[in-house]
Amino acid sequence: MLCIHGGGFRAGTREGYDTLCLKLAQEGYVAATVTYRLSPAYRFPAAVQDCKAAVRWMRAHAGEQKIDPARIGAMGSSAGGHLALFLGVTSGVREFEGEGDSAQSSKVQCVVSYYGPSDFTQSYGKSVDAHEVLPLFFGGDLVQKRRDHILGSPLNWVTPHASPTLCIHGTQDNYVAHEQAVWMVDRLKAASVEAELLTLDGAGHGFKGADAELAEKRMLEFFARHLKAGGSKPAAVP
């Protein structure tokens, strides 16, 4: 399992998921976190390339780390949710692979996104900090860098080959609108990809209490179904 931290593409550290990694280990998974390049020093697609390199590293070291290379999942929250979604829809897209071991695939067998954005062209005016975060990530706003906003939106890369995906999103999220998850799940379903949406009524950006417990429960159920022996057959690794 690859866990990808959030932080608006400009902050956050891998250590933020240490507790989750321990929980996943207790559930029988090999859990890893990734440090990716942050804006404004590095722009899209640097963070994407780093996450793909992390997946390839996991496959290249599968033997020593006791990883099943055919059963690798990704999860993340907010910006990390976006990066997890991106992994799920851009397997084999060369421009996003970056450098590293090209002999390994960066495909993930399933994805869980906690309130990750799917369409950056629709973020401005609906997110309290999109006007600050996205120009740093793309090197300009929607007028200046519209093409990059389009290329950076997972929604635009959905194909029938995308990975099964679970989106978890609150209806009162002021940073990433709930509709972003609705659009992603609908697009995946339209492409005949297994996709689920867990809507948490009244939840904001970052889950607490019962919402956090339910989100984790559904995430673990989803991963168990797709990654554990006896679950559904994992998607082939190209």
Task: Please tell me about this protein's structure.
The protein has 238 residues and is an alpha/beta fold. It has a single domain (2-227), classed as Rossmann fold (3-Layer(aba) Sandwich), CATH 3.40.50.1820. Helices cover 36% and strands 11% of the residues. The protein has helices spanning 18-26, 46-60, 62-65, 79-89, 130-138, 146-151, 179-190, 209-227, and strands spanning 2-4, 32-33, 73-77, 110-114, 165-170, 195-200. The protein has a six-stranded parallel β-sheet, with helices on both faces. Helix 2 (46-60) packs across helix 4 (79-89). The chain is globular and about 45 Å long. The two termini are 19 Å apart. The mean pLDDT is 95.
Continuous helix count: 8
Which blocks of ≥5 consecutive residues have pLDDT under 50? none
What is the C-alpha radius of gyration, as a whole number of Å? 16 Å
Shape: globular
- CATH superfamily heading: Alpha/Beta hydrolase fold, catalytic domain
Structural class: alpha/beta
The number of domains is: 1
What's the total count of β strands?
6
CATH class: Alpha Beta
Give the strand content: 5-15%
- How helix-rich are the residues, as a percent range? 25-40%
Q: Report the order of strands and helices.
A: EHEHHEHEHHEHEH
Across the major sheet, the strand order is 2-1-3-4-5-6
Mean pLDDT: 95
Assigned CATH architecture: 3-Layer(aba) Sandwich
Give the termini separation: 19 Å
**The CATH topology is what?**
Rossmann fold
Give a short summary of the structure.
The protein is α/β, with parallel strands linked by helices and 238 residues long. The protein has helices at residues 18-26, 46-60, 62-65, 79-89, 130-138, 146-151, 179-190, 209-227; strands at residues 2-4, 32-33, 73-77, 110-114, 165-170, 195-200. The protein has a six-stranded parallel β-sheet, with helices on both faces.
